[in-house]
Amino acid sequence: SQKIEQNSEALNIQEGKTATLTCNYTNYSPAYLQWYRQDPGRGPVFLLLIRENEKEKRKERLKVTFDTTLKQSLFHITASQPADSATYLCALEVSSASKIIFGSGTRLSIRP
Amino acid sequence: GAVVSQHPSRVICKSGTSVKIECRSLDFQATTMFWYRQFPKQSLMLMATSNEGSKATYEQGVEKDKFLINHASLTLSTLTVTSAHPEDSSFYICSAPGAGELFFGEGSRLTVL
Q1: How distant is the Cα of A42 from the closest Cα of chain B, in angstroms?
Q2: In chain B, what residues touch A2 (CB-CB under 8 Å)?
Q3: Which of A29, A32, B62, B110 has its CA 20 to 30 A from that of B12?
């Protein structure tokens, strides 16, 4: 069956450290994968997109990798700050159906 | 970036009544909009894809007659929860696709008493 899994439901790290979140998928062949941030009671906000032919993409303190062999994406936040505390969602496009589906999310908490 | 406005942000209704949620793309046209539902501490579950000028496409297990979707124009899609029951209480979020990303509304918190 098709699945998108974010292995950690919650992740707590110390301010200044690098946070690494994992997204794994099975039985999909996405052309791209996205990461979103969601704050409580709000809609998700787009952060980054990485295409199947890209191994890594960066945006300020964010870095995303995409390994289509392992069927995995890693999302890194370097020099983490308490303001980075939120739920982070990975999403991929099911191109055959023109829709985007989401992983279960990882709730990240950065302690001062 | 593009803006999607969703209204109302919160609604409380009695069991058996119907509730309409509106989703508008403010500065762009959206031929497609997606409706998601999110239960507490869970991820977004796609309910249906709204298509301007044609019928919506519903995900497996989502009742078409209960969750009525109308995509009346290129900037407006509505979701009507008919004969709402307490188990329909959830956070409903719409989104419209842009260039490589989804633009989300702020969500509507529905509480059915």
Answers
A1: 5
A2: none
A3: B62
Q: Give residue-wise pLDDT tens across range B37-74.
A: 999 888 899 999 999 988 999 999 999 999 999 998 99
Which of A43, A49, A102 has the CB atom closest to B107's CB atom?
A: A43
What is the SS3 string spanning chain A? CCEEECCCCEEEEECCCCEEEEEEEECCCCCEEEEEEECCCCCCEEEEEEECCCCEEEECCEEEEEECCCCEEEEEECCCCHHHCEEEEEEEEECCCCEEEECCCEEEEEEC
pLDDT tens digit string along B14-38? 999 999 999 999 989 999 999 999 9
Spell out the residues 6+ positions from residue A38 whose beta carbon is closer than 8 angstroms to its own. Answer: A44, A45, A86, A87, A88, A89, A105
